């Protein structure tokens, strides 16, 4: 993800998905659409993926993470606290926006999908 963050810094921001929608195919850059920025960043920092380091980071701002989305159980996720195996094939980016616990005291990280689904 560091390359993505550096791209945003180098290009003075990033466009919204409504101004520059994801198409899932190779193509050429739309210079006009890419010049409309909705957000800018000036720096970023890698956070150790331990619970002790993630908690204060998420308390201050959303944190981008990668996970293994190829697992069958995760592919059929229905919105409950996911307790399946983590996997090792880091292939999908999401944003951790909150830490909490459900009614059964099961701890969880609330994540927003990178596709805003």
Automatic annotation (TrEMBL):
**Which parts of the chain are coiled coil?**
none
Domain annotation Peptidase C1A papain C-terminal: ranges: 1-117
Identify the InterPro entries for this entry: Papain-like_cys_pep_sf, Peptidase_C1A, Peptidase_C1A_C
Keywords from UniProt, A to Z, are: Hydrolase, Protease, Thiol protease
Q: Which SUPFAM superfamilies match?
A: Cysteine proteinases
- Pfam families tied to this protein: Peptidase_C1
An example GO BP is:
proteolysis
MF annotations from Gene Ontology:
cysteine-type peptidase activity
Which superkingdom? Eukaryota
Give the similarity note.
Belongs to the peptidase C1 family.
Can you say what this protein is called? KDEL-tailed cysteine endopeptidase CEP1-like
* Source organism of this protein record: Rhodamnia argentea
């Amino acid at each position: 993800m560091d390359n993505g963050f550096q791209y945003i810094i180098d290009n003075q921001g990033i466009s919204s998905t409504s101004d520059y929608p994801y198409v899932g195919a190779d193509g050429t850059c739309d210079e006009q659409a890419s010049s409309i920025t909705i957000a800018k960043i000036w720096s970023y920092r890698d956070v150790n993926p331990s619970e002790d380091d993630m908690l204060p980071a998420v308390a201050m701002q959303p944190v981008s993470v990668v996970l293994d989305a190829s697992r069958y159980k995760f592919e059929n996720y229905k919105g409950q606290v996911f307790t399946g195996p983590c996997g090792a094939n880091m292939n999908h980016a999401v944003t951790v926006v909150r830490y909490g616990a459900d009614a059964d005291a099961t701890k969880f990280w609330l994540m927003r999908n990178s596709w805003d689904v």
